[in-house]
Amino acid sequence: MSRLEEKIFREYMTFFEKAERERRWNVFQDIPWDRVNKDASEELALCAETFCSVEMYLPDYVSNGINLVRSYFGQSWFQANWAYEESKHSLTLMQYLLRSGKRTEEQLTDLQNTIFTKKWSLPFHTPRQMTFYGCVQEMATFVIYVKHRERAGVENDECLRTIYDYIARDEIAHCRFYQSVIKVLLEEDRQGTLADMAHVFANFEMPGVGLVPDYDSRILKMREAGIDRNVFIQKVYMPILKYLGVSRHEMLAAQRAALDLRHAGNRRDTSIEGLAGAPNQKDAPQALSA
Predict the structure, then answer these.
(1) How far apart are the C-alpha atoms of 82 and 12, rounded to whole Å?
(2) Does residue 72 contact residue 127 with C-beta atoms inside 8 Å?
(3) Predicted confidence (pLDDT) per residue in 97-111, tens digit
(4) What whole-number distance in Å separates Cα of residue 250 and Cα of residue 203?
(5) Cα separations (Å) of 210 from 50, 125, 206, 256?
(6) What is the reported pTM?
């Protein structure tokens, strides 16, 4: 095991120990199923169904992700743990839709069949880029679930509010693991890691884009909970940079250097393919700004 792999494995063990000690929850025992608000709005159910739909691509997320990092013990074991935790998210949301009476088993079966006609593919193709993609995706998802937890509370659906609370806790924990790995990567190769960060920020999309049925119309409903471009900048982009100890000046410098390399060769550089400008109000992820 190399020094880098050893550091990442230690980060995973720290993550796993804390998860076992503080964060495990039970779908059948910890959710107040008797406090479902069956009179909650269809918009609330539609958003829960959208989250559930994105989570249903778990087989693609797991197979693609774990194969990419299978030679890195800490990261591959994290993927296995991540798969278990994410599986609870989709199962719990399915149970909510059924127990609330908002969807029937037949409707969910039809949704599953539609979901599985498409496959999710890796948006980036190196472990370092996908580590940063995971960091951004988990932070963005955390922010979205927190917003919708508040919305469920307003509609007096304590069951769904609790579900979102547990899922949000998982998502931010996943984000923190990715951030701990990125800190190690920054120590090993700061300039290369910054270039990959800039690339991912510039080309980021949430995993449901182009896959979930009627995604664009679903996102319009999600925006009603206050999920927009400004939220991404303030609650995702800037906090990630601050947590990692990366200044906006550093990020902009990495973007300019990458663009110079690409323009000098008049072609895309393989390590920073498709790099564009810094995330701003026009470049926020489609899932947050559609």
Answers:
(1) 11
(2) yes
(3) 999 999 999 999 999
(4) 18
(5) 13, 19, 10, 30
(6) 0.86
